[in-house]
Structure formats: structure tokens, C-alpha cells
Amino acid sequence: MHPDLAKLLQLQEKDLGLKGVGERLAALHEEIAALDLAVASGEEAHTAAQRAVADAVARRTETEAKIETYRGQQDRRKQRLEITRPGKVAASIMAELELARSVLTQEESQWVSMDETVRGLEEQVAQAAAELEELKKAQDPERAELLTREGSLLEERESVTREREVSASQLDKPLRIKYDRLYQSRSVAVVVAMNGPACGACFTTIPLHRRTQIKNGSVLGGCEVCGVILYYVDEEG
Ligand SMILES: [Zn+2]
Q1: What is the sign of the dihedral through the CA atoms of 7, 8, 11 and 17?
Q2: Angle 233-174-202 from CA coordinates, rounded to 5°
Q3: What is the pLDDT of residues 115-151, one digit of tens each?
Q4: Is the separation of the CB atoms in 53 and 125 below 8 Å?
Q5: pLDDT score recorded for residue 236
Q6: How much of the chain exceeds pLDDT 70, in percent?
Q7: Is the pLDDT of residue 237 over 60?
Q8: How far is the CA of 178 from the centre of ligand 1 (A)?
Q9: What's the CA-to-centroid distance between 222 and ligand 1, angstroms?
Q10: pTM for the whole thing?
């Protein structure tokens, strides 16, 4: 076996370990994102309910203004009637009063139903707020657990990164650069065991003389097709 192989394999082990930590972190962040999404949709429901209340209140206020106007008009009619002598004019004012009274009654009953709508919608806001609160509370333990896991994964990443630097520092710079390039381009194992007479990564058969060199460790053999660094696993172990 080539003397650098053990160091390369050790470095690769750290890199693959780092990759695993990175994947676990990404999965964990997805879990957090799913929790955030649930909260966001609860917040959206709450906001939509609030908006519906605001709209309903605005409509109710409009009706209130209308009712106020009608009442003012009725008051003025009544005043006019008081100072008008019985007769044709008085009769017409009375007819107006009667007509306006039924319009006013309609508006008032509309106001009552709008007011009921507002109350119903306000209940929905309260319910949405309570549901949101409940959801957040229900998420708390899971979030705490995810944060703990994240903390330990970050620690693990830090310590594996340090170990990786130690492993990397044991390689000559050119080999280290070669390995880093290979690993960065593939992000999978780049120091690969031979598969019989073939490259363990792309399964191209390696010429006999190269296999012999790889086997006796005189060269650090690379696959000419896919570029990985090859080694023989000792048959005795
Ligand atoms: Zn290959």
C-alpha cells in the first residue's frame, strides 16, 4: 500500500463525516422550516380574520352614518310639521315622514345584522388567535429538542472540522490539493477500493501494469476515466 493512502483515507473519512453532519443539519433545518410554515399559516388565518372584522366594522360604520343622516332629516321634517298648518303641505310632509320611517327601519335592521356579523367575526379572530397560541405552545417542546440537536450537530461539525484539518496537514501540499479538488468536484468518496481488476467507482478495468503498481504501492494510482484515487484492499484484511 502506498504510504499516503492511509492518510488519504483518514482525511476522506473526516470529509464524509462532515458531509453526513451537513446532511443531518439540513434535514433538521427542514424540520424547523416546517414548524415555521405551520405558524405562518396560523398567523395568516389570524390576519385574514382581523381583516374581515375591519371590513365588517367599516360597513357597519357606513350604515351608522346613513342612519344618522336619515334621523337628522326626520327631525327636520318633524320640526317643519310642527310649524306647518294642517293642509296639503302638512299632509305631504307626513307622507315623507312615513316613507322615511320605513327606510330608517330597514337600515336599522340591517345595522343589527351587520353588528351580529361583526361579533361573529370577532369570535373567529379570538379563535384564530387561540389556535395560533396553542400551535406555538404545542411546538415548543419539539423546537427545544431541535435546537438541542442543532447545537450538538454544530459542535460535532466543529470538532470534525478540526480533526479534518489535522488529517489534511499530514499530506504533502500537492496531494492535498489534488484530493481537495477531487473531493469538491464529486462530494462522494474519491479514494476508492479496487473492485477486482476494475475501478471501484466507475468500473472501468484498470490495465494490468497499473494494477500491479497500485498493489505494490509504488504509485498512488488514479483511475484514468473518472479520476478517483484507487487502492487495493488487502485480501487478508
Ligand atoms: Zn474510475
Answers
A1: negative
A2: 40
A3: 999 999 999 999 999 999 999 999 999 999 999 999 9
A4: yes
A5: 46
A6: 98
A7: no
A8: 16
A9: 8
A10: 0.75
How remote is the CA of residue 161 from the centroid of ligand 1, in Å?
Answer: 28
Residue 41, CB-side half-sphere exposure with 13 Å CA sphere: 6
Q: 5 vs 50, 126, 171, 175, 219, CA distance in Å? A: 66, 67, 10, 11, 10
161 close to 18: Cβ distance less than 8 angstroms: yes
* Closest to 112 in 3D by CA, of 54, 49, 67: 67
> What letter represents residue 42's amino acid?
G
Q: DSSP readout, 10-54?
A: HHHHHHHHHHHHHHHHHHHHHHHHHHHHHHHHHHHHHHHHHHHHH
3-class DSSP state of 229: strand
| Residue 207 CA to ligand 1 centre (angstroms) | 12
* Domains in the chain, CATH or no CATH each: 14-170 (1.10.287.1490)
Band the pLDDT of 63: cuts 50, 70, 90: very high
